[in-house]
């Protein structure tokens, strides 16, 4: 799956949604100044940036070397390591909170990943995660256009956590207590259709993989269907995510 990409490509593809989402997600998780927080699957640093801006002490981890390098350049004060959620290289009880933004649906074993996040969080600390809702998340307009042409295409709505209750099931299976799940959302204005469409051609994530498998005519047909549905711009995408938090 295409996530080992230049940070700039990921930023144009998902950062435009992930950055405003970070503020809403951080508030949902109840993170404040002075908290010692682990950002799991940090990507190029959208959530890390927000957490630092509110005065949290942040460590971060991601499997992508290019993302790790980007965060090290942006935030040299952050302890960032290469690794996955399922095998976190930290001692038990190291953090006040462990957060995963837009990551659970790409974990190889989501229950194991959340269980590891709980392990490295102190007793009574917070574990939180959010993922895009399948039918109304940031990528829904893209997949809706795909389904006009390819009704059988497998989209990201089937990934872990993409519907109400999925995150709660994962959190409870991982042994977390007092689990609370709710929807959170951000509005992102796209000034032109081209600004919205072009990042889908960068090969990032399942959507990017799908576009890269198309030939030139297929891409042109998909872009035309999407433009017909969205317009030339400006237009607003309301991106909804499910968020869950629990107590370690």
Automatic annotation (TrEMBL):
Pfam families: Methyltransf_11
A molecular function (GO) term: S-adenosylmethionine-dependent methyltransferase activity
Regions annotated as coiled coil: none
Methyltransferase type domain mapped to chain residues: 38-128
BP GO terms, sorted: methylation
Family matches, as InterPro entries: Diverse_substrate_MTase, Methyltransf_11, SAM-dependent_MTases_sf
Organism superkingdom: Bacteria
Keywords, ordered alphabetically: Methyltransferase, Transferase
Cross-referenced PANTHER family: METHYLTRANSF_11 DOMAIN-CONTAINING PROTEIN, METHYLTRANSFERASE TYPE 11 DOMAIN-CONTAINING PROTEIN
Family: Belongs to the methyltransferase superfamily.
Annotated protein name in UniProt: SAM-dependent methyltransferase
Native species: Mycobacterium dioxanotrophicus
Taxonomy of the source species: Bacteria, Bacillati, Actinomycetota, Actinomycetes, Mycobacteriales
């Amino acid at each position: 799956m295409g996530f080992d990409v230049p940070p700039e490509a990921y930023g144009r593809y998902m950062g435009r949604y992930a950055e405003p989402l970070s503020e809403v997600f951080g508030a949902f998780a109840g993170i404040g100044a002075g908290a010692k927080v682990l950002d799991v699957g940090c990507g190029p640093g959208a959530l890390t940036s927000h957490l630092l801006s509110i005065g949290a002490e942040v460590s971060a981890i991601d499997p992508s070397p290019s993302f790790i390098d980007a965060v090290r350049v942006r935030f040299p004060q952050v302890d960032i390591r290469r690794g996955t959620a399922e095998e976190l290289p930290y001692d038990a009880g190291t953090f006040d909170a462990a957060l995963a933004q837009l990551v659970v649906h790409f974990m190889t074993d989501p229950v194991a990943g959340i269980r590891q996040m709980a392990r490295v969080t102190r007793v009574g600390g917070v574990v939180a995660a959010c993922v895009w809702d399948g039918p109304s998340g940031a990528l829904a307009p893209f997949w809706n256009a795909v389904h006009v042409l390819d009704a059988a295409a497998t989209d990201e709505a089937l990934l872990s956590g993409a519907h109400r209750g999925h995150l709660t099931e994962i959190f409870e299976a991982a042994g977390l207590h007092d689990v609370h799940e709710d929807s959170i959302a951000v509005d992102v204005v796209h000034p032109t259709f081209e600004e919205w469409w072009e990042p889908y051609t960068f090969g990032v994530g399942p959507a990017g993989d799908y576009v890269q498998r198309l030939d030139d005519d297929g891409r042109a047909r998909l872009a035309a269907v999407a433009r017909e549905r969205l317009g030339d711009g400006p237009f607003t995408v309301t991106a909804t995510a499910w968020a869950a938090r629990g107590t370690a």
